[in-house]
Task: inverse folding
């Protein structure tokens, strides 16, 4: 019994030691658990405090941003596509931005005010520079010196000075030339008859001029007839020719007929030559005429004095 009691006593002591060690072990685990639980709470508390500080400082940063120069503000916000800030810390509304744009009635689009322009100082209508440039180019290409306003029923015209900065150089030169031509009286100006030249010329000579050389293409032409020079044919004789008979080959044939004294049928304009007989001619077209006076033949025409 003593031995067993001793063993039992040892067991109780061991159990007591185990209980104490377990107690200390549990207390250590509780402390670790407490540290594990309280640590996130502290972190969240610090984060919450930092967020409050940031929230309090946000209006200040926006206010400072609005006071920065525009170039600096845009350079600092490149790539973020931020709305433009207006005084007061509010972003500009669409209605405010629309008020800063103009409306072009030709292309029916809203344009920046820098793209809009008036056609003249006296005309109240304004359009975008692209539409005005196209309108002027088309009008000048149609050989017109005056460019009307694009507004319907408007009597104003587009001014040359207002378009200097938007038109190509070749269009400006063509427009300037046409404006200069418009200042010359119609009675004093004419054009070179050669189609590959057509240069404008001014007749400022008081004397009657017939033969003239174009200073641009250096070819001769008749000032009175407005055609290439008809050598050997007077202006009166040339005017008597039909429109389809005034080419160089037709003139050569006409001169040959004059030299050989050929007659011409008044009806079909065909040349005939009499070798012998009376002046009564029967043309192949059926028309009868007098070879001497070139008039229609009649029964009492036999005694023509021009025979």
Result:
């Amino acid at each position: 019994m003593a031995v067993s009691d001793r063993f039992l006593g040892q067991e109780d002591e061991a159990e007591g030691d185990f209980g104490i060690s377990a107690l200390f072990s549990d207390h250590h685990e509780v402390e670790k658990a407490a540290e594990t639980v309280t640590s996130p709470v502290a972190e969240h508390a610090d984060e919450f405090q930092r967020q409050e500080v940031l929230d309090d400082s946000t209006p200040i940063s926006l206010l400072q941003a609005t006071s920065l120069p525009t170039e600096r503000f845009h350079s600092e916000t490149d790539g973020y596509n931020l709305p433009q800030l207006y005084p007061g810390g509010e972003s500009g509304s669409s209605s405010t931005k629309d008020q800063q744009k103009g409306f072009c009635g030709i292309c029916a689009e809203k344009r920046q005010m820098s793209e809009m322009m008036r056609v003249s100082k006296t005309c109240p209508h304004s359009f975008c520079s692209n539409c005005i440039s196209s309108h002027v180019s088309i009008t000048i290409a149609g050989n017109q010196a005056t460019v009307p306003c694009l507004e319907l029923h408007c009597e104003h015209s587009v001014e040359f000075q207002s378009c200097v900065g938007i038109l190509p150089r070749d269009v400006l030169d063509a427009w300037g030339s046409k404006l200069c031509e418009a200042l010359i009286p119609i009675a004093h100006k004419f054009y070179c008859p050669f189609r590959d030249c057509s240069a404008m010329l001014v007749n400022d000579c008081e004397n009657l001029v017939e033969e003239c050389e174009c200073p641009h293409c250096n070819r001769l032409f008749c000032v009175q007839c407005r055609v290439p020079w008809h050598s050997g044919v007077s202006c009166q004789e040339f005017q008597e020719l039909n429109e389809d008979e005034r080419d160089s080959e037709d003139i050569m044939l006409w001169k040959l007929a004059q030299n050989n004294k050929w007659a011409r049928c008044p009806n079909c304009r065909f040349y005939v030559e009499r070798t012998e007989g009376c002046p009564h001619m029967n043309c192949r077209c059926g028309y009868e005429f007098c070879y001497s006076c070139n008039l229609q033949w009649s029964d009492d025409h036999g005694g023509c004095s021009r025979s």
In short: Residues 1-45, 52-98 have pLDDT under 50 and may be disordered. The CA atoms of residues 182 and 227 lie 23 Å apart.
